[in-house]
Structures are given as C-alpha cells and as structure tokens.
Amino acid sequence: MYKILSFRDDDYLGRVAKIEFTYRGEADYVYLAGSFNAFNEGSFRMRKINDKWKGEIELPEGIWYYGFAVNGVLIFDKENPERVQYERKAYKFKNTVSVCKALSFEPNNCKGICKEALYHYPALTYAYPFQDWIFIRFRTLKNNVDSVYIITKKDKLRMNKKASDEVFDYYEVILPYIGELSYSFEVIKGKEKVKYGSFNVDFSKRKDNAPEWVYESVFYQIMPDRFANGDIRYDPNDIRELHDWRLAHYGGDLVGLTNKLDYLEKLGINAIYLTPIFPSKTYHSYDVEDYYNVDLKYGGNEAFEKFMDESRKRGIKVILDGVFHHTSFFHPYFQDIVQNNESSAYKDWYRIIRFPVINEEFKKVLYSNLPWLEKSRKLRELKKNYESFFGVWVMPRLNHDNPKVVEFIKNVGLYWVQRYKTNGWRLDVAHGVPPRVWKEFRENLPENVYLIGEVMDDARLWIFDKFHGIMNYPLYEALLRFFVYQEMTSEEFLNWLELLSVYYGPNEYLMYNFLDNHDVSRFLSLVEDKQKYKCALVFLFTYKGVPSIFYGDEIGIRGIKKDREEQREPMIWEAEKWDRELLEFTRRLIRLRRNNKALQRGIFKPVKFKDGLLVYKRALNDETILIAINYSKKEKHLSLPSSFEILFQSGLFNKVNNQLGAFSSIIVKEM
Fold first, then answer.
1. Which residues are CB-contacts of 79 (< 8 A; sequence separation ≥ 6)?
2. Were 229 and a residue from 17, 251, 405, 634 both cysteine, which residue would form a disulfide, CB within 3.0 to 4.6 Å?
3. 2-104: which CATH architecture?
4. Catalytic residue among 77, 289, 321, 454
5. What is this structure's pTM?
6. Domain 603-670 is classified in which CATH homologous superfamily?
7. How far apart are CA 141 and CA 143, in angstroms?
8. 96: which strand partners?
C-alpha cells in the first residue's frame, strides 16, 4: 500500500509528495517500480522492516502508476484496490498496475473554483527564461475554471490553456525577457474570482548551464560491430563460426568507422553516439569487462584515439555509452566473487542474494567447451544467486548503495572525458540506477559534457540536476501512437507534446529525439510507407530537442524487432542497394536543421492541429519558420503568410491555392 507523508515545494518540479510504499510478503528482494522509472528494477530498492518491505520516494503531485518487482517479477499492490491496465508501446509494456493518487486535496470535494488545486511556485518548470523569452505556468483542477490571468506591474494578460493530464490543466504565458519580474494571478469561474500569490523572480540568476554545442547538433547513432569492418585482424572468432549476424559478431570496428567519417560528414551530422566500445563477450558490448580500455575487437585504444582525432578535425562531437547499472559476469570484480564468495573484497559491489553465487551445475556449463552462444543459452535457464539485468546471467547488477561503486562510476565517467576528450555520455538503463548517483556523476564532470539517460517513461525525476535530457521515449510514444498506429488524434498529439513541455521546462530543448534506435523497430518498417516516414522525419527535424538518426535510416534499412534484434542489421555499403531518394531527403533535412537557429532554439507555436494536419511555427528573434504536415489521405488547405519562401517540401503542394497533398509536408520561412 502507499501513504502520503508530506508535501513540499521543489525548486525544479514544483509541489512534490513524499510517499511511503509498503509490501507484505516473503522475498529475497523487492523494488518499487512504476511510471516514474519505466517499471524497472534497480533504482528504488525497498528495505525489509519487521514483516514489511518499505520504500520512500518523492513524486510530483498527480497520478502515478506502480507495482512491486518481487524477486524479479512485477506484481500489483494487492492491498490497493485501484488498478488499471497500463500500456507503453515505446518500451513494449502492458500490465495491470496499481494507481497512486499523490494529491494534496480531494477533487470530488471541490465546489466552485477548487482553491486547493490552484498552484504556482517559481520552480524551474513553472517559471524559466529561454532565449529572449520568459515562460510562466499556472496549474488548476482539470475543467474547473474559465480563465487565468497573470498580473504584472505593467499588464494583465490572459494565459493560454497549454495542456491537461488526468487531474490538472496547465496554463502558460510567454513574456519578453526581463531580468526581474513581479507577478500574481487571477483565476475566474463565472462570477467567482480568486487572487493567487505574489511572486518575484530574478531570472538573470537562472543560468542555462547546458553545453551550447548540443542545441546545434544532429546525432548519428552507431553500433560499432554493425557499421564497418576496417581491419579483419580484429575480427572475433564467432564471425567465422556463425554467419547469422543477429546472433553473433558482424566484425565492425573503429578503423572502419574512422574510414567512413567522410561519409558522415557529407551526410551533415555533427555528433555521434557510440554504443559500448569496452571489452565484452557479446557483439553489443552491454556486458562490460573493463571500463578503462577499448575492446581489441574494435581496434583497441589506439584505434579509438585516431577516431577521436579524425572526428575533431571534422567538428564532430562524440558521446559514449556508459553501462553502470550492471557489469559483465566476467568483470574481474565479479569473478573475484565467483571464486571467493564471502571472502571476496568485492562482495558488497553487487546485489548478491546468497552464497555461493553459482552452483556446481552452473560451473560445469560455464567452464565447458560448448560454443559461446549455446553455453549462454544453457546458463540462462539455470538458477543463480545474484540479481541481474532482466534476469540475464551475464549482467550482474551493481550495488549502488555502496559508496565505492558510486566513486568507481564517477571516476570512469571523468576518465574518458579527460583522457580522450569525449563530449558526453549516454547512460544505459539509467532508470535502473538511483537518481542520486547520476547527480553525483554530473557534478564530477565539466559543464560542457552532455549527459542523456535511458529513461523510457516519465523522466521528471531524472533530469534538471541529473541529466540534461533523456532518450525521449515519452515523445517516441506519441510518435508511435500518431504516425504508426494512428490511435491518437491531432489534438491529442498536441496535448501530449505540450504536456511534455510542462513537465520538462527548458530541458525539452536538450532531449535526444529519435524515430528508432538499437532497442526498437525501424520506424520505416513500422509505417510501411516511405511518404508517411518522411512526414515523421520532417516532424523530428523541426521539433524541439536534438534530432538523431540510427545508422542506416538514411539509406532505407528496415527491420522489425522480434526475438533476435532484427533492427540491428549491418550497415549496407553497396551504394547500388541504397535508397538514394531517402538519402538525399535526409541530407537536406539535416542541412536545414543545422542552418536555422529557429529550428534549434526557437519557441514552439501551435497553429492548427486537426484532422491529421499539424501546423506549427518555430520562432527566434526575427526569424519565423512555419511547418505543415498533412498526415491524412485528403489534401488540406493552408493559411500561409502573404509572403514566404519555401525551404523544404515533401510530396504535393499547390502554391496557387495553398493546398497540401495527402501525406505531404512543407516548411516555409515567413518574409
């Protein structure tokens, strides 16, 4: 069950609730899991006190969904009768979960204006500067008031209703930048009026400490093993043993990647995200055996140093993939535990259930001469006495309550930034590590280092003073529902976008946005239509946040993720197999994005979201760019400015009568 302990005003999130969760039952271990951490184990471990497992967490006021991960199995709260079917297509989650109402009032008890639900606090998500503007937000009970006004010394302005969630409506006003602002609010319902607050904020002290280079970036994600084989001397043995690239190494290395930098430069990207390059047994390398060296199968440290030098010459930034939720079974520290059990100096570095960590049957298979893949399959079925990532035997979970583990993670993060001048980190299974660890991780790094976390659901607990942004799965969820499954109307799509804006404040401009990556199906395969795919791609490159491409998207590589990671097909280098039209289309979009500050930092102004038509503006200083995407089977009329320049067009557009064809897009600059 859960119990609300208290409420307080948080400098980032506004009002947050301190909540105690309890679970009754026998278990080796229990984690609190919910929409706040993508229902993932690792981050919020519960502690057994007498006959109960207890855990505390602070969450923004609102409705949350949760369960308990008991011995690796997610169950709902049996003591809480409120349950729902919760689904997120973005990370393939669908389950019955429990409902937590983290509210400081009872909505059904409100009469007239619900004064208890009215809220503003000059937290970062409620009052912040960005570029030449100031954003002020105010919250009310959903569908409870007629209007909200902001009152300053000079003006009384009506605020726009921006978005709604299950409980609240959020209002916003955008004001020209001013160093210091005094303001209050007036809320109206019929003849009833309520005055709210008196606030004074010095916006000149709210420094944006994000790396400047990020706003101008277009990322290209690469799995080194799948990209380009530059030197066969580095090829692992299983390339010759097995020809199915879905199961074994393909042979890509950093030599091959360095050789292809000219291709990437011509494509127009200026930032690369590399999946792990550290020593491991697998082709994907998410089971790290050594955090201080580059795997020899990728060319080793020397090849990486040359790659970094050549990238810098081209002005290309590079971020690495940090795997700190777990290590490899074969990491020396875990191997010490396997050999020495209770006597190991590292027994507190991992989440050990009991000793010995593996039994004799496990050892027999482990030390056999079976081929690696067959051995791994057999070990997957055997009992083990340690926690691991999704039960995968080769990925034992680290103990983040151990200060030595946290210090180790911090030191690794700093090492690669200092030694090789890397530009940032993407942190794997970030929602499976306590947020406090990431706060320390960030504080240990220079300000110009970009940090993004793999957080697959609501990310409010993980950004601001932890990550600059996340791999934007919440946005991806909306993209799937609108562009792929068409389960969401244009109006619902806009509300989803604006709600993310409310939740993330200025950090929405630092989100790592994608249509696909190494963990999900290729978007082109999902929509099954190139013209529809182009519409989604236009949105990606014209919306707030940092756009990214998964290697091969630009040439039309397809792949639906099933059971063998089919979306990770090796890069195709035979030019005759490329979709050259899509390649040129992508190249033009990248060039447009990089050449227009309004698309990088401009405010988002919705114009019309209706019947499959998405029309919005991005505006910065004197530059305004209008984007129209017709994601429907019927042509649509556009209300365009009297004078404009067409910057980009996809599909059909009749300039004589301003008709935009079915599944077509246009980007214009207002003159």
1. 1, 22, 24
2. 251
3. Sandwich (2.60)
4. 454
5. 0.97
6. Golgi alpha-mannosidase II (2.60.40.1180)
7. 6
8. 85
The residue annotated as part of the active site, out of 58, 169, 295, 428, is: 428
Q: Around Cβ 401, how many Cβ atoms within 10 Å?
A: 13
Three-class SS state of 412 = helix
What is the b/e burial string over 470-479, where b = at least 16 CB atoms within 10 angstroms of the residue's CB? bbbbbbbbbb
d(CA 25, CA 178): 56
Spell out where 256-350 has E strands: 271-274, 317-322
Q: What is the mean pLDDT of each run of 10 residues along the chain (671 residues)?
A: 98 98 97 98 96 97 98 97 98 97 93 95 97 96 98 96 98 96 98 97 88 97 97 84 71 97 98 98 96 98 98 98 98 98 98 97 95 88 95 96 98 98 98 98 97 98 97 98 98 98 97 97 97 98 98 96 84 97 98 98 98 98 96 96 94 95 98 88
Residue tagged 């990671």 (tokens): 565
**H or E stretch covering 589:** helix 580-595
Q: Look up tokens 């912040």; give the residue.
A: 128
Confirm whether 454 is a catalytic residue.
yes
What architecture is the 108-205 domain classified under in CATH?
A: Sandwich (2.60)
Q: Can you spell out the DSSP letters for 438-462?
A: HHHHHHTS-TT-EEEE---S--TTT
What are the sequence ranges of the domains in the chain? 2-104, 108-205, 217-325+402-595, 332-391, 603-670
Q: CA dihedral defined by 93, 488, 515, 129, rounded to 10 degrees?
A: -100
Does 584 participate in catalysis according to the annotation?
Answer: no
**What is the residue whose two structure tokens read 């791999």?**
471
d(CA 373, CA 359): 20
